[in-house]
Recover the amino acids of this structure.
């Protein structure tokens, strides 16, 4: 590896924890705060000259410093820091230098981040779309004595509802709809027949794995989302 490649790799690895915060985001704006914090963290290691311009401005600019200090240890601390950094005259040069280095070492930071952002937003969209059905299913379980099989059945219905918002699962979703003789895929409880909803059927596995994969791309898991 060249010195540039080593520096870039070290900077990337040092900021993995920041990158992982994408899994805590609940909106595009929050995702972009994490993205820019990741870029700023990388620049602090491998684009020191450009980073120093912003660091000094954040310290010496009274308004920026006051905003950051006021939010320290609070839930908006990272957002306040990034908002101040973005307003710096050195922000665009820093991004330019970082992306130039990324290209020089054969990496594409926008592609790396874009995959995380798309995965998270797709998963959030699926969760939001299926939330009302989840509430109904959970209430039915809570109001009745239920077995593990009942819980599995309810989760299957919810997972199918999640798949409605995941375009890549269209084929296996349609296959499962036919398997269980579903009248309205957008309303899986209509004409629901528990005997047909058997997770051992071959048609369920691709849908099951597809939803689990979407959850992982979104920084979560099916079980975590079901229990939330």
């Amino acid at each position: 590896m060249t010195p540039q490649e080593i520096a870039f790799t070290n900077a990337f690895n040092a900021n993995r924890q920041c990158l992982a915060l994408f899994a805590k985001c609940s909106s595009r704006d929050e995702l972009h705060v994490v993205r820019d914090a990741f870029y700023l963290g990388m620049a602090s290691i491998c684009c020191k000259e450009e980073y120093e311009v912003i660091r000094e401005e954040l310290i010496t600019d009274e308004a920026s410093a006051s905003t950051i200090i006021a939010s320290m240890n609070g839930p908006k601390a990272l957002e306040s820091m990034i908002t101040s950094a973005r307003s710096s005259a050195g922000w665009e040069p820093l991004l330019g230098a970082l992306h130039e280095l990324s290209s020089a070492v054969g990496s594409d930071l926008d592609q790396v981040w874009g995959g995380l952002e798309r995965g998270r937003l797709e998963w959030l969209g699926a969760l939001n779309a299926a939330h009302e059905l989840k509430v109904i299913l959970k209430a039915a379980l809570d109001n009745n004595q239920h077995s593990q099989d009942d819980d599995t059945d309810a989760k299957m219905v919810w997972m199918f509802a999640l798949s409605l918002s995941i375009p890549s699962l269209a084929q296996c979703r349609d296959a499962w709809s036919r398997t269980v003789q579903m009248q309205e895929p957008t309303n899986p409880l209509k004409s629901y027949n528990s005997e047909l909803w058997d997770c051992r059927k071959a048609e369920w596995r691709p849908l099951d794995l597809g939803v689990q994969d979407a959850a992982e791309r979104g920084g979560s898991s099916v079980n975590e989302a079901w229990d939330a």
Residues 117-227 form one domain.
